[in-house]
Amino acid sequence: MKTVSAVEFGTTAIRGALERAGLAPEEVDEILIGNVLQA
C-alpha cells in the first residue's frame, strides 16, 4: 500500500462499496471521504 496514493486507494474502496451495495455510480449524488496523516 506504500506505493498507492490516497486518491487511488479511495477510488478502489468506493468502487468496491458501490458494487457490494448493488448501486450504479449514477445513483449516487455525493460521497464524502477524508484522509488523515499522522504527524
TrEMBL record:
One of its GO terms (molecular function) is acyltransferase activity, transferring groups other than amino-acyl groups. It comes from Candidatus Carbonibacillus altaicus. This is Thiolase N-terminal domain-containing protein. Coiled coil: none annotated. Transmembrane segments: none annotated. Residues 2-39 form the Thiolase N-terminal domain. Pfam families: Thiolase_N.
